[in-house]
Amino acid sequence: AEGLARPAIAVDHLRDLAGHLAHEIYQRPSESLWLAGVTGTNGKTTVSQWLARALEELGCRCGIVGTLGCGFPEQLAASNNTTPDALELHRALAEFRAAGAAAVAMEVSSIGLDQGRVNGASMDIAIFTNLTRDHLDYHGTMETYAAAKSRIFSLPGLRAAIINLDDAFGLAQARRLVGEGLQVIGYTCVASNADAVPGAQVLVADHIRTSASGLQFTVIWERSQAELQVRMVAPFNVSNLLAVIAALLARGVALDEVLHVAARLTPPEGRMQLVGGVGEPLVVIDYAHSPDALAKVLAAVRTTVRTRGGRLVCVFGCGGDRDPGKRPLMGEVVRELADRVVVTSDNPRSEDPLTIIEAVAAGAGPAAECIVDRAQAIRIAIGEAAADDVIVLAGKGHEPYQEVLGQRLPFSDLEQARAALLEWNRSAGV
Hints:
Blueprint: H1 14-25, E1 34-39, H2 44-57, E2 62-66, E3 69-72, E4 75-77, H3 86-98, E5 103-107, H4 110-114, E6 125-128, H5 136-139, H6 142-150, E7 160-164, H7 168-179, E8 183-188, E9 201-211, E10 214-221, E11 224-230, H8 236-251, H9 255-262, E12 273-276, E13 282-286, H10 291-308, E14 312-316, H11 326-337, E15 340-343, H12 353-364, E16 369-370, H13 374-383, E17 390-394, E18 401-404, E19 407-410, H14 413-427
Parallel strand pairs: 1-5, 1-6, 2-5, 6-7, 7-8, 8-9, 13-17, 14-15, 14-17, 15-16
Antiparallel strand pairs: 2-3, 3-4, 9-10, 10-11, 12-13, 18-19
């Protein structure tokens, strides 16, 4: 090309080819790794984190690529995107290989699939969790969003698909893929769905119930069944756990070994993370930032609220420069499922925080309290809570920042919650 010191060749659709080029440049790293890609609106982080932790427990060094960062469990370096660009991804895979990893659990976003970020990667299994409204600011329609998600099943070399049969889109994909001859392992929390996809193997969680230390349910796999007790409070996490169990079974791990490891898993940072609760309000921190995810979190927490005999308070907001259509929908969800509604800021980015809050409040109703400063909103919600109340801080989860006008300002829901609980205890004379 004219004006360049070195020869250059113009290539059409270079972004689509970047992954394939990086695959060769880094000497085909994914071919030396058992690569599991996790896609879906909700649950990607939990499933990938749990899968990596489980494999490590089983003696298999496993890397992680996703929302919480890139690296090994407990050694994650922050990353800008859920799914890195193609060059960065293949470089990371090469580094995992050099560090002795045998596997990688990776979050694969719809945007990452649409932009070809995983092109060239040799994926062994693809895990699909669910499909609900999100990212419509990018995709435009649910149909386009769904089409992007489904691309994970078209990646060359894919050996098996792990699919949530309790999701309508997942069920349709499972039936399609069985017809195409791909190995499909479905998972379900509804026993009647066990026969929904002829030709697929199906993992079932039956008789899900609460216990003193978490949840208990019956795992049914082929001709075997066993009881599993887990340390978590959200029933929707049973579905996420089934995805992990199914992936390990697809890898060839025996069911008894899988269940032994699964029983020790706990939610990752910012995913149904519990703070306080003994003689003081219980705070639940979760990344839920879509109407469906928020509804599931609040419904899951309601059981704990009943047990404690208190009220359910929800502090939440919506991100700026993102799908504005979901703002009143999230407000409606919280109005229906929480006893006290506090609408606040959540990464307003380039937008006026008050404009976003007003859109959310339109769905949340006249009883909603609007507090622009998120730190103040958290202090007030916890400070005015009774000892038996439960406060859900939704939307930011693990994030250590608040994104405002192009800057990421230090901010942590966890730190704010801990500080507010300390002040609550001082005021209560504890």
